[in-house]
Design brief:
By secondary structure, the chain is of the alpha/beta class. It folds into three domains: 4-180, Alpha-D-Glucose-1,6-Bisphosphate, Chain A, domain 3, CATH 3.40.120; 184-407, Alpha-D-Glucose-1,6-Bisphosphate, Chain A, domain 3; 409-542, TATA-Binding Protein, CATH 3.30.310. The protein has 17 helices and 27 strands. It is globular, with a radius of gyration of 23 Å. The protein starts with a strand and ends with a strand. The model has no long low-confidence stretch (mean pLDDT 96). Bound molecules: 1,6-di-O-phosphono-alpha-D-glucopyranose. 1,6-di-O-phosphono-alpha-D-glucopyranose binds at residues 18-19, 113-114, 281-282, 321, 344-346, 363, 365, 367, 486-488, 496.
Length: 543
């Protein structure tokens, strides 16, 4: 089988964002678009000759067609093997685990994560390296450079590979192994947690609802929660992955997982609720009438991780992305371990995890994970919560109340202004950036600015520097506002405004977050002039 070399030229708009390349599905389906990007990944990582790569995705529209193209291009570029999830399905954490377990040269993960799926929605592709984690900034830059210099790509002509049958076949010289997408991951989870205790919890009548949002986690959650741990049938809802996620928005937050929120705040609600996103790396945690912000969830997991066998000896350190609240910092301080503050994007945790400097990490964007893989992991977070609930015998609300009593409460919220014209979004960021130096000492909405800067990060392991990672404004008393532009959207710009306020007085730990954060919101809006510059008087999504 001779590879075809197809002449092409660079296509504009192939710069990877926070997590690989995300575009409208129809853009990915345009002639040469996918092929150009795949060849650029292959060239950017220095070729794939003789290597084995993992390939899988979240099952969204175009997942299967794109996988066939990637396999034919791997064959044409001299790869030795591909390990593919049955039906083209692999959750992002399961793909990360397979890359590590098989010692492969990395993997292609097809997903636009929490973005909607379908021919008129979003598609995405990213490359994870041999450590199982998202390509570093350096590799990403090489991939982008390759997209700008590309003149040809290589692909073999071949029949489609049967993705549905477990087993090994060949495509030219490429060996294609179709594997059960759940089995290895489920085995890993069993090695981390006390499944006996969790089983006993469910056997005692503990009730849970897990909303898989019609996305990739359904089969994983059903196999582990219902079939292995004995949760009642029906615990997992929306558990069959569909190409358009049941026409939904698979983003696990109180807005998009409203049905679950309503159930958890209704009469006779289950003891524990959780949801995960399109590709299974995000999670939402909600107890009976108790929503847990992702930042608080990270802090709670750090405080109680020792209850799970994998973390019984304590944590080496923790890390959080800069916009994530300081709740976990306070837990780390009490434990006497390091807490690292990184830019937004899981790729920045990779060096810290590989160097053994941190065990747990997390982000305000509903991601938590540990050194068991190199991705955030939605179901892992849910299982760690279950292990903690089983071991402590406490409810979610009790655990949160104790956390706030011991460490203070970091009230937190994120306001998203979506689909803003790019020049208007830039005007907000540029204007604020220009005023940062003058802000300290300013009094606004009853708060006094103590610092204002643009976040830059020097990786303590590889020495690389990432600049322009968000604008931070700190206020007296531990409040903070952060502004940054999303790197995962596909239309216009999304301004993210992150608000936080630390409260330590015991009688003020039970306020509605909107009330506690009102002054910070007012100060942030005044200082940024956001409403006047964008014409928006309210955010589209508040989480
Ligand atoms: C991706 C990254 C996360 C990051 C998030 C933020 O999440 O993997 O590490 O926190 O994007 O995105 P934005 O730039 O829009 O704020 P995911 O779940 O979309 O892969």
């Amino acid at each position: 089988m001779q590879p075809d070399t197809v002449a092409t030229q660079p296509i504009a708009g192939q710069k990877p964002g926070t997590s690989g390349l995300r575009k409208k599905t129809r853009t990915f389906m345009e002639p040469h678009f996918l092929e150009n990007y795949v060849q650029s990944i292959i060239d950017g990582i220095g070729g794939v000759v003789g290597q084995t790569l993992v390939v899988g995705g979240d099952g969204r529209y175009f997942n299967d067609r794109a996988i066939q193209v990637i396999l034919r291009m791997l064959a044409a570029n001299g790869a030795a093997g591909a390990v593919v999830g049955q039906g083209g399905i692999l959750s992002t954490p399961a793909a990360s685990h397979l890359i590590r377990k098989r010692g492969t040269g990395g993997g292609f993960i097809l997903s636009a994560s929490h973005n909607p799926g379908g021919i008129d929605a979003d598609f995405g592709l990213k490359f994870n390296g041999p450590n199982g984690g998202p390509a570093s900034e350096g590799v990403t830059a090489k991939i982008f450079a390759a997209t700008e210099a590309i003149t040809e790509y290589r692909i073999v002509e071949a029949q489609d590979v049967d993705l549905d049958t477990i087993g090994t076949s060949t495509l030219g010289d490429l060996s294609v192994e179709i594997v059960n997408p759940v089995a290895d991951y489920a085995e890993l989870m069993e090695s981390l947690f006390d499944f006996g205790k969790i089983r006993a919890l469910f056997a005692s009548g503990f009730r849970m609802r897990f909303d898989a949002m019609h996305a990739v986690t359904g089969p994983y959650a059903t196999a582990i929660l219902e079939d292995t741990l004995g949760a009642a049938t029906g615990t997992v809802i929306n558990g069959t992955p569909s190409p358009d996620f049941g026409q939904g928005h698979p983003d696990p937050n109180p807005v998009w997982a409203k049905t679950l929120m309503d159930e958890m705040y209704g009469d006779d609600s289950p003891d524990f609720g959780a949801a995960s996103d399109g590709d299974g790396d995000r999670n939402m945690i909600v107890g009976r009438r108790q929503y847990v912000t992702p930042s608080d969830s990270l802090a709670l997991l750090a405080a109680h991780a020792h209850r799970a066998p994998a973390y019984a000896n304590g944590l080496a350190g923790v890390a959080r992305s800069m916009p994530t609240s300081g709740a976990v910092d306070r837990v780390a301080e009490a434990q006497g371990i390091d807490c690292y503050e990184t830019p937004t994007g899981w790729k920045f945790f990779g060096t810290l995890l590989d160097a053994g400097k941190v065990t747990l990490c997390g982000e305000e964007s509903a991601g938590t994970g540990s050194d068991h893989v190199r991705e955030k992991d939605g179901l892992w977070a849910v299982l760690l919560w279950l292990n903690i609930l089983a071991d402590s015998g406490q409810s979610v609300a009790d655990l949160m109340a104790a956390l706030w009593r011991d460490f203070g409460r970091c009230y937190y919220s994120r306001h998203d202004y979506e689909d803003v014209e790019v020049d208007k979004a830039n005007a907000v960021m540029d204007g604020l950036r220009a005023r940062l130096a003058t802000l300290p000492g300013t009094q606004v909405a009853g708060l006094t600015v103590t610092f204002a800067d643009e976040f830059a990060y020097d990786d303590p392991v590889d020495g690389s520097r990432a600049e322009a990672q968000g604008l931070r404004i700190g206020f007296e008393g531990g409040a903070r506002a952060v502004f940054r532009l999303s790197g995962t959207g596909t239309v216009g710009a999304t301004i993210r405004m992150y608000l936080e306020r630390l409260e330590t007085s015991a009688d003020a730990l039970d306020q509605p977050a909107e009330t506690a954060l009102r002054p910070v919101v007012d100060a942030a809006l005044t200082l940024s002039d956001l409403a006047a510059l964008t014409g928006r008087d309210s955010p589209n999504v508040i989480t």
